[in-house]
Structures are given as structure tokens and as C-alpha cells.
Amino acid sequence: MTGSARTRLLDDLSARFLREFGGPAPRVFFAPGRINLVGAHLDYNGGDVLPMAVDQGVFVAARLSPRPQLRLRSLDQELAVDVEVAQVGNRTQPAFGWAGYPLGVWHSFRDKCALAAGVDLVFGGNLPMASGLSSSAAIEVATALALDALHDTRLDRQTLALLAHRAETGFVGLRCGIMDQFASALGKAGHVLLLHCAGPRWEHVPFDPLACEVLVMDTRRPRHLARTGFNERVAQCATVHELLRTHVRDLPHLALYTLADVEAAKGAIDELLFRRARHVVTEMVRLASGVAALRRHDYQALGQALNDSHSSTAGDYQVSCAELDVITDAARACDGVFGARLTGAGFGGCAIALLRPGAGATVPLQVAAVFQRRFGVAPVFDLLRAGTGPIELR
Ligand code: GLA
Fold this sequence. Notes:
Order of helices and strands: HEEEEEHEHHHEEEHHHHHEEHEE
Bound molecules: alpha-D-galactopyranose
Radius of gyration: 21 Å
Distance between the termini: 19 Å
Largest sheet: 6 strands, mixed
Oligomer: single chain
């Protein structure tokens, strides 16, 4: 995003806030979206993931209010939500729409800290919504940071990430792992996050923007089945983990088994569950080789880990779709592309490609031509950088 586009966005945010709620100027907070380089669907299986907070995300203008009410607005969503503090409940409702995410964070916060009356919030941002770049986690983490600052509760970043995660699993009802909220809350410019989800423990690994760039390719295909398909995968993994515990050995997480373990249980599990487990255990191996490649700045080998991850995510895990397969194949066929895969949960939305610097001038044109011939739709491209974690803007 250019400096002037960002200034315009911030001006719009403040203007809307003052128009809606009047009074003194709000404070403004930012939290980033993320891509995941490799480690698909490993977080809820106790595995490792390699996400990168990006330099785009969600901004929120926020101010405490003396009235016992939460008032939520968005520059990008028509729905405006006003809800009495006493009416928030333990679960989101259809009437809350997009506001279920920030309301869920407020709910987790209220459980942890004694909150003052109400709050007024206006959201805006520059991430494509619901496309696999974690706009929901960015909304949650931005809200968590805003509530923390407004109430002066001084929680650390891990706690903010956990509150945001609880909003998603408890209040919104998506059985996701911790990757998205941790990636947003712990982002560090010029680095990716190696997150061991079972701890959780993490470290930041440098990512050299002069050696490799990240191209996001938005297929603009809505993420059909994202919620039901996602929760179904989580349930399948829990079932196959139980079978492995009974038939092979007792380990606390599915991601800790080996391919030999999964093959040893082949007679006891059906074909579909076998494939889900095979994706998880082999993705851990791809993750390890991707991390090793990143540490030695071998972006060609990292790209190969992305390609292999996509094949397994599409084949054994079955969360890809024709649009994601075509766009990643088209990218791989271009000069200067190290590798490509879908990002996020899959089922539509965005893919990423790792590029040799400079290739960003030609790759989008070539990929767009192939994609448009096949689907009659123009994908949207963006070169992203590894951005900072959540911050208050001054
Ligand atoms: C979604 C979830 C994450 C993770 C990814 C798949 O983004 O929110 O927790 O499971 O899918 O890797």
C-alpha cells in the first residue's frame, strides 16, 4: 500500500468515527494479516507452521464509551452493529455478522479483565476479506490490542493472541488452530515466525526481501465450504489420531507420528482418514526442509517445499480447487518463480508464489492470461512484505 493510500484510509477511518460517534478523536491501532509459507493444516494437529505477518492488515479507531453499549462500524461492510453489553452472550448470532469477531474478543477480554462500560469501534483495512490472508485474525488482534490499550491492562502479545484465538473458537465457532492469531500478534518486519503450536513456542527466522519476494494471487473464488469443510477436516484428524493411539502408539498430537506409523495402521483406518493422516505427517517433513532451506537462504529449495505442500494439500487433504490448482501451476511455469501453493485453509481465496526479485513485473501478466483463458475472471495480484506485529499509530 502506498503512503498516500494509507493516509487516505486513516483519514476515512477518523472521519467516519467522528461522524458516527462525535466527541474527541479516537486512538488508532493496526494488526497485520498473514500468509503461511509451509505447514498446511498442522496447527490444530500440534505441528509446526511457518507464517509471515504481512504489511497489510486491519486498522481500528477505538474509544471507550460511558454508555453500556458496544457500537461497531466498518468502512467495508454495510452492517452496523449496536449491542448492549448485557446482550452480548457467549456465542455470535447471525445479526452480528462480521462484528462477531470483535465482539468475541470483547467477550474473551471481559472474562479475563474487568472491563469498563462500552466501546466504540470503526474498522477499515487493506486486506482482501475472507480470502485466506486472515482478515478475521487481524480484526481480532487489532481489537485485542485496542481493548488492552484503552483499559491499560498491559497484556503481553501471547496473551492477546490467545484471547483472539478464544474469540474465534469459542464465540465464532471455527475450530481453528493458533497460527493466524499468533502470526498477527507476533509479526516482526523482515522475519517469518516458526511456531511450534504444541508449546506454543516460537522463534523469528529472517526472510531476505532482496533475495525473494512474496506474490499473493487472489483467485477471487469465494471460499466455498470454508467453515464446514474446515471443521470436518479437524474432526477427521481427531478420529484418525485416536485410531493411531489405539493401534500404533500413544502420542499427544497427530503431527508427531511418522509416515511409518501411519502405514502400520493402514489396515485399521479407512482410505480417506489414511490420506488425511499422510498429509499431516509428511507436511511436518516438508516444513522441516522448508525451515532448513530458509535458514541457509536457499529460496529454490524453500519454493520446492511450497510446491510439494500444495500437491499434498490438494491430493491427500483435498482443500484445493480448480482455481487454486490452475493459478499455482501457471505461476510455477514462469521464469523467476521458486514455488507456489494455496495459503490459509484453502477451498478458494488466495495462493502465494515466491519470486526472484524483479519477476513481479512479468509473472502476474503471464499467470493472469492463463487464468483468464480458463475461468474468464481476472485474478488480483499483490507483492507483500514481511510486516510488523500489531501497533498503535501515533
Ligand atoms: C485457517 C485456520 C488456521 C490454519 C489454516 C490452515 O487459516 O484459521 O488455524 O489451520 O487454516 O493451515
